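User: For my dataset I need records formatted as: sequence, then structure tokens, nothing else. Please produce one.
Assistant:
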Amino acid sequence: MRKRLEAYFEFDRLGTNWRTEILAGATTFVTMAYIVLVNPAILAAAGLPLAAVTAATCISAAFASILMGIVARYPIALAPGMGLNAYFAYTVCIKMHIPWQTALGAVFISGVLFLATTAAGLRQMILRSIPQQLYAAVAGGIGLFIAFIGFQNAGLVVRAPGTFVSLGNVKSPTTALALAGLTLMAALEVKKVRGSILIGVLSITALAWALGLAHWTPSGAGLHALAATAFQLNLRGALNKGLLEIIFVFFFVDLFDNLGTLVAVGKRAGLIDHGHSIPRLNQIFFSDATATVFGSLAGTSTVTSYVESTAGVEAGGRSGVTAIVTGLFFVAAIGAAPFAGVVPAAATAPALILVGALMLTTITEIDWRNPLVSVPAFLTLVLVPFTYSIATGLGFGVIAWAVLHLATGKLRRQDWLLYLLAALFLARFIYIGTS
């Protein structure tokens, strides 16, 4: 049985083993476990029961990650998406006064649309239509994005009224711990120590607790609480209220967030072949779409791929076993949710910063001397972190690419889908704005 599993997950071809994959899965989990705390807090503002949505968060992340690992065999973990959960709670439910049951119905419909477009091959066509150098910029932009999140979690970057952001208090114990963790992880990475990120996270966690700088208050959430949100979605309400715009946002943002994350993780793991195509693409999209449908049935917002999966890749994860292990950790989190709170932000922040730094290697693939390429790539690279949105960064890059090629007479008939995407992105920015 073990040999069959190793053959199925292509351990020999990928140069990996069970120890490395398990370690990588644990690394991915500790860097994204914050979602067990954050997603319920956001969705509870929309009226969803906190205990129920905590259970829904864990079960949907577990199901989605395990499905991705088994079916697509990629080291990509999934969970309810940040940004989309805020849109669900604050824009749809609170601002537009849409009941959360109806909003879940809209999420379900968007998931069905994902499945339909995957079956029709549309998502695959979209992926192939976008220039590879823009994807290199997306991967670099995601690196800056997660590093920026890491800097904030470490307290190294803080809000400032005049300049938006500023340097935090470097004398703060939490910030000092995070910087110590970054130093430790980077030193281990230089020495090629496998599991450097996980070792750093666990070491700083232990130090934080020893110094009294970590705090954890467990909640009473469990699988039994899921009944309050499971299958509570209102499909008829979603269809009758004419929520086309809302469904479109859920669909559109998740589509390009997923594409961007997929390419970033795939490039970093060396899983994209020499022809710039991604093996088992249909299985990846099927897993992602099914996860969104499952999440809406469980009682949470759109489930999508997580950029924190790159932490597991940096730890050596190459196969679907990494995602399966991450999913199993989320299964364990159901029974003790939110036990992930034992790992403080000071321990996970340096992991995000280090992974972000390592992901910037992709920008060497961009022809920076050619403005036709460099301007769209630059917009993509910087707007992903500046706008907190992979889809927005990619959207501006695609629009700039299309506009510059049209303005300079470089239009090619075979690029018709790229120009259609540019028009859709432009329409999205004009009509929906920053939603």
